[in-house]
Structure formats: structure tokens, C-alpha cells
Design a protein that fits this description.
Blueprint lengths: L1 H18 L3 E7 L4 E7 L2 H4 L10 E3 L11 E9 L14 E6 L15 E6 L7 E10 L22 H8 L14 E5 L2 E5 L9 H59 L1
Parallel strand pairs: 1-7
Antiparallel strand pairs: 1-2, 3-4, 4-7, 5-6, 8-9
Length: 262
């Protein structure tokens, strides 16, 4: 029993040793496009993050006075061995799950491939080394490098409706004239690239839609005509069968009468 107890306590000791240390926080601000990485080694501050799950809210004042008024949302993280946190796994330990193409933390290399991989649960614990946070609400003070800068987006919108909403365009405006182009230098030449607009309604698209509707209507009419012809043929065959049955019955009756007279 002593040997078994010592073996059971060995992983707990290793976990306690691994649990000590600092935690890095990757804080992203979607409004500015900026991101910073800070390191916290104060255990009192880190206790505000423990036992919280992915997508839960963290008060910035618990992380320090400089983050007072800020509200952060936990979006993910990695443990000290590099295994990612997975949403929906309600534990703080590491587990092995059979993953496929429809879940996160796995990218199949072949069609229909599944694989058992190690992932960390969605509950924050002392084993997490890097935690990802997203700014949900801004506080009173500015955070250097996160809220006082504005990083422009590298690529513009691609969908036609989003381009219209960005430039406040009407139905009569041509979306193709408002596509954000990207220009860069390559081998001494200035190259300009623009995305292919998705869900753009053009005369060709309208023509194809009309053709599809016309083909659909013609197929419906053909099927209705074929059904009418079939029902007419069935009724004709039934009428012929009834007439044949009547003629057979009349023939038998006449033969009976002739036999009785004889």
C-alpha cells in the first residue's frame, strides 16, 4: 500500500512543482488591432484567473491597478508543455480526445482522418503558461501599445454587402469601384492586388439565375405533362380491360344459352 500511495503522490508533486512560476497574458484589442504580452508572477493576481473558463469575463482591476476599469474575456491558452486549451472540455487537466475535422485543435491531413490528441481543458489552472485575453470594455487609463495605437488592417472586406456597409453605398453604386487594393514593391515593380468580390450581383449572375428558374419551370411542366400522359394511358388500359371483361362475360353467357337450347 505504501508503494501504491507513493506512486499516486508522485504526479501530484510534479504538478505542484510545475504549477509554480509566472504566466504570460496575450491581450488583444480588436478595436485598434494591437496586441501586447505581459508577464505576471504574482500569485495573488493569478488567483483571479484560476477556475475560470474560456469565454468568461475577467475584471482588469484584479490583474493590477493599471488595468482598472477594463474587462477582459478569456479566449484560450496553452499549458507549460504547449498543449492548447479546448472549449467544452470541463476540466483543468490534460486529456486525450479523438478529434476529427469538425472540431478545433486538429487539422486532418487526409479525408475522413481522425486522431487522438492531447488537449488541455477549458478551465484555467496553475498549469497554464500562456493565456489569451480580449479587451471587451476599455477603462479610464490608456495601456501603452494596446489602446493608444491604431494598426491599420492589412486587407479590406471581401464580401459585397460588407463593402457597401463600410462605405455606406446604395443599390445604385458600383461596388467594384470601392474595393480596397493592396500595393507593394516586388523586384523593383509596384504591384497592386485586389480581392475577388464575393456575392456580387452582376448581369451575368442575374442571367444565370433566370436560366435556372426557366429550366426548373420547364422541367416541372415536362414532369406534369408526362404524369398526365401516364394517367391517361392507365385509364385507357383500365377501360380496355373492362371492355375485354364484359365481352368475355357476354361470350360465356351466349355459349351457356346455346348449350341449354340444344
Amino acid at each position: 500500500h505504501v508503494l501504491v500511495e507513493s506512486r499516486n503522490r508522485a504526479p501530484q508533486r510534479r504538478q505542484a512543482l510545475h504549477g509554480r512560476g509566472a504566466m504570460k497574458l496575450n491581450i488583444a484589442n480588436p478595436n485598434t488591432g494591437a496586441q501586447i504580452c505581459i508577464e505576471i508572477d504574482d500569485e495573488k493576481r493569478l488567483r483571479a484567473l484560476y477556475d475560470k473558463r474560456i469565454s468568461q469575463i475577467v475584471d482588469g482591476s484584479d490583474l493590477g491597478e493599471e488595468y482598472a476599469g477594463y474587462i477582459f474575456r478569456i479566449s484560450g491558452g496553452n499549458d507549460k508543455q504547449g498543449f492548447p486549451m479546448k472549449q467544452g472540455v470541463l476540466t483543468s487537466n490534460r486529456v486525450r480526445l479523438l478529434l476529427d475535422k469538425d472540431v478545433s485543435c486538429y487539422r486532418p491531413r487526409r479525408k475522413g482522418e481522425r486522431k487522438r490528441k492531447s488537449v488541455r481543458g477549458c478551465i484555467v489552472g496553475s498549469h497554464i503558461s500562456v493565456l489569451n485575453l480580449v479587451v471587451e470594455s476599455k477603462g479610464d487609463a490608456e495601456i501603452p501599445g494596446l489602446t493608444d495605437v491604431q494598426i491599420p488592417r492589412r486587407l479590406g472586406p471581401k464580401r459585397a454587402s460588407k463593402i457597401r456597409s463600410l462605405f455606406n453605398l446604395g443599390p445604385e453604386d458600383d461596388v467594384r469601384k470601392y474595393v480596397i487594393r493592396r500595393r507593394f514593391e516586388k523586384k523593383g515593380k509596384t504591384i497592386s492586388k485586389a480581392p475577388k468580390i464575393q456575392r456580387l450581383v452582376t448581369p451575368v449572375v442575374i442571367k444565370r439565375k433566370v436560366r435556372r428558374e426557366t429550366e426548373k419551370l420547364s422541367k416541372l411542366q415536362q414532369s406534369q405533362l408526362a404524369e398526365a400522359n401516364y394517367m391517361r394511358l392507365v385509364a385507357q388500359r383500365a377501360q380496355e380491360a373492362r371492355e375485354a371483361r364484359r365481352s368475355e362475360i357476354s361470350r360465356r353467357r351466349s355459349s351457356r344459352r346455346a348449350s341449354t337450347r340444344a
